[in-house]
Amino acid sequence: MLFRRSLAYLVAFSATATAVFPAPHSSHHGSGGSGPFPATYLTDPSLPRHTIYIPESPELPPWVSLPVLVWAEGGCGNNGTSFEPFLTNIASYGFIVLALGPPNGTGYIFQDAMDDAVTWVQERAGKLGRYENVDSSRIAAAGQSCGGLLAYTQRHNDAVSFLGIFNSGLLGNTTDAQENLPKGMIIEEPSVIHEVKKPVFWWLGGSEDVAQSAGTADYHNLTRVPKWIGNYPVGHSGTYQEPDGGEFGVAAVNWLRWVLKGDKQASKFFRSGGAERAGWVETESWGLERLDLYSEQDID
Ligand SMILES: *[C@@H]1O[C@H](CO)[C@@H](O)[C@H](O)[C@H]1NC(C)=O
Ligand SMILES: *[C@@H]1O[C@H](CO)[C@@H](O)[C@H](O)[C@H]1NC(C)=O
Ligand SMILES: *[C@@H]1O[C@H](CO)[C@@H](O)[C@H](O)[C@H]1NC(C)=O
Ligand SMILES: CC(=O)N[C@H]1CO[C@H](CO)[C@@H](O)[C@@H]1O
Questions:
Q1: Residue 105 Cα, ligand 2 centroid: separation in angstroms?
Q2: What is the pLDDT of residue 164?
Q3: Is the beta carbon of 186 within 6 A of some atom in ligand 3?
Q4: Of 150, 155, 226, 230, which is most buried with the most CB atoms under 10 A?
Q5: Would 13 be classed as within a structural domain?
Q6: The CATH number of the domain where 225 resides is what?
Q7: In a domain, 299, yes or no
Q8: Which ligand is in closest contact with the Cα of 180?
Q9: Residue by residue, what is the 3-state secondary structure of the chain?
Q10: What angle do CA 163, 67, 266 make, to 5 degrees?
Q11: Domain residues for 194?
Q12: Ligand 3 within 6 A of 184 CB?
């Protein structure tokens, strides 16, 4: 009963109306983030099922490269602006974020949209114009709750190097999962964790997080792959809606700066007590020293 009621968080977004595809726009939204490159979101007709978060300046210096985060929303919701503070803040540190769902989209969206985002960015990265600074050789896939389940599917995508699982874990095809996850979703068994060969980081919400047991089991069952797990004890919804995404935002930025930009200072968050000082508990890791090898490749 508790599990079933709690699972409803995974599908917290309703699927009533047909999807809306707003006209392209790139006006300033929200705070712009806390990083050095004030960011915004926009839409691009060539990627109509997504929202793109990117530094606002049309001309970045050539030495600023923008690695890629493909992001799936909580509830597998088709609303690309439902994590706006968190994703804008990430982009402001010099990333492009391809979030599933157009701004204010309704209904659900699934893993094929993650694959589409990766294909799209590979075609455009480095070409003259808005995506000139984008570096598609460095891609992470992540998501929250139901979106975390979509992120796991990118284990098979050779273009994706890192997985981030926020308030999520593999549920298996239980009756509860069948009844509570959106129809049309592929429900994967916990055993697929053994197929993961990419480094994975988990951010959970402590004992009040419905996903804590599944996420923790996944962490322990993943072997021979660099991994980190931590809990910020605020429950399943995290701090994504706080200014700049709150503590989950800080953690995500440190993760991406380290693994996608090779930033050693950011790595200290995970290796030298930074997360614990910020209030993360029940942290654990394995093999993180190997990530320096990953993250220094191809870095200028
Ligand atoms: C999309 O998410 C934003 C932020 O939570 C919210 O303000 C907006 O109402 C949502 N749009 C829809 C159509 O649900
Ligand atoms: C999304 O909906 C919210 C209200 O729920 C509105 O304030 C906002 O302007 C809308 N954004 C877009 C891009 O349509
Ligand atoms: C879950 O298992 C049922 C049988 O119990 C099967 O009919 C269904 O297709 C499975 N659903 C998914 C999403 O794999
Ligand atoms: C899928 C899988 O390997 N599951 C195992 C995860 O770890 C727990 C306990 O450590 C086992 O009970 C599961 O069988």
A1: 10
A2: 98
A3: yes
A4: 150
A5: yes
A6: 3.40.50.1820
A7: no
A8: 3
A9: CHHHHHHHHHHCCCCCCCCCCCCCCCCCCCCCCCCCCCEEEECCCCCCCEEEEEECCCCCCCCCCEEEEEEECHHHECCCCCCHHHHHHHHCCCCEEEEECCCCCCCECCHHHHHHHHHHHHHHCCCCCCCCCEEEEEEEEEEECHHHHHHHHHHHCCCCCEEEEECCCCCCCCHHHHHHCCCCCCCCCHHHHHHCCCCEEEEECCCCCCCHHHHHHHHHHCCCCCEEEEECCCCCCCCCCCHHHHHHHHHHHHHHHHHHHCCHHHHHHHHCCHHHHCCCEEEEEECCCHHHHHHHCCCC
A10: 70
A11: 2-293
A12: no
Tokens of 263: 């930033």
Write the pLDDT tens digit of every residue in 47-82: 999 999 999 986 788 889 999 999 999 999 999 999
Tokens of 123: 């075609």
Locate 76 and state its tokens.
């597998």
Q: Which two tokens stand for residue 248?
A: 């989950």
Let me know if residue 216 belongs to a domain: yes
Q: What is the pTM of this model?
A: 0.90
Residue keyed to tokens 């020293």: 289
Give the tokens for residue 20. 């809306």
Domain count, the chain: 1
Is residue 101 assigned to a domain? yes
